Amino acid sequence: MTKIDRIETTLIDLPTIRGHVLSMTTMMVQSIVLVRVRFSDGSVGLGEGTSIGGMSYGAESPESIKLAIDTYIAPVLEGLDGDQINAAIDAMQRAVKGNPIARCAVETALWDGLAKRLGVSVAQLFGGPVRRAMPVAWTLASGKSETDIEEAQAMLENRRHNIFKLKIGKRPVRDDIAHVAAICDAVGDRSSIRVDVNQAWSLSEARWGLKGLQEIGVDLVEQPIGARYREQLKALTDGYEIAVMADEALQGPEDAMAYAAGRSADVFAVKIAQSGGLKRGSEVVSIAQAAGIGLYAGTMLEAGVGTAAALQLFSTFPELDWGTELFGPLLMKQDILAEPIRYEDFSVHLPEGPGLGAELDEDRIAQFRRDRGAQVAGVAVPGGV
């Protein structure tokens, strides 16, 4: 039996290439929790837990993810059979309520370790990839129309992205629509334009917003109102031709079932972290497929490890109607992978190799780990690598 010997966590702070403006915050740094699961045979699995904008986005922060793993998850899993991932998932769910990102980070490392021991990719453990390249969106989130237009044009010229998502909701609705209209006028005939409101609008604002966005040719609007207002999101879904996508509302299969039963959204943004892991994420996808709801591979702005994990899973689904937004590593000034994920020809490409296909650049990890001062001084850090 290959036992789980030790679970280690490290906080990594990665500066972003520019301010990433959301309705609730502006990100200048993305903080991740890097997870290493060490097994009794010497193999090591990698995982990543990442939130967006600290706790302004959701209930988990990088610090709480690390705490949940170190204090509650690791003691329950250490000593268990590392090959029995379903048993580990069950143990985590019984020991820790909520905390889907923390659970996903550890589960990812378990899948990575198992696949490496078997000499196959994580995708193979979910039935094998049906695609090795997936359409990938880029988020325009400087908050300035001129800057966003220049950025979009550069992406089109370099053939890196032809799907653009705009972060809006911080300004009055009419100002947001004017901002989006300027970008649609500049690049809309060469790309798909979508918007993400991150729950910022009231129902009345959303009605005006969707009407205006539909008129200027936007393809999709993501989570325009609060996640708890399912009936209101359904009303918007039923009332407009523009596609309405649920994101923050989907916190796992139970939420997916409720939204599918009421046909409360046209599209599901499926995030492995928000779903509670790759297995639960695959269940959310299955529910969407059974209900005829469109699929979009969402991101928590993960760095390389978390993005590789999502790519492994989403490569196994024949239908991915709305593509992906798995661009997280491109938002960071430095990549933490020895071999960065490949982005070209308007697609993101599945990493090759066993497990996640992701190996760390240990020098970069040492450079950006939050406890690097303590490590240099020789101070032991609990849970640290």
Structure report:
- The protein is α/β, with parallel strands linked by helices and 385 residues long.
- The chain contains 15 helices and 13 strands.
- It has helices at residues 62-77, 85-95, 100-118, 122-125, 145-157, 173-187, 203-215, 230-239, 253-261, 272-275, 278-291, 304-314, 328-331, 362-368, 372-376, and strands spanning 4-21, 26-39, 44-50, 133-135, 138-140, 163-167, 192-196, 220-222, 243-246, 267-270, 294-297, 343-344, 347-349.
- α1 (62-77) packs across α3 (100-118), α5 packs parallel to α6 and α6 runs parallel beside α7 (203-215).
- The mean pLDDT is 94.
Number of strands: 13
Q: Please indicate the percent range of residues in DSSP E strands (runs of 2 or more).
A: 15-25%
Low-confidence stretches: none
- Average pLDDT taken over every residue: 94
Question: In which range does the helix fraction lie?
Answer: 40-55%
The secondary-structure element order is EEEHHHHEEHEHEHEHEHEHHEHHEEHH
Ends apart, CA distance between termini:
24 Å
Strand order of the largest sheet: 5-6-7-8-9-10-11
Global shape? globular
Structural class: alpha/beta
The major pleated sheet works out as: 7 strands, parallel
| Gyration radius from CA atoms, angstroms | 20 Å
Please outline the helices and strands.
Blueprint: E1 4-21, E2 26-39, E3 44-50, H1 62-77, H2 85-95, H3 100-118, H4 122-125, E4 133-135, E5 138-140, H5 145-157, E6 163-167, H6 173-187, E7 192-196, H7 203-215, E8 220-222, H8 230-239, E9 243-246, H9 253-261, E10 267-270, H10 272-275, H11 278-291, E11 294-297, H12 304-314, H13 328-331, E12 343-344, E13 347-349, H14 362-368, H15 372-376
Parallel strand pairs: 5-6, 6-7, 7-8, 8-9, 9-10, 10-11
Antiparallel strand pairs: 1-2, 2-3, 4-13, 12-13
Helix pairs in contact: 1-2, 1-3, 2-3, 5-6, 6-7, 9-11
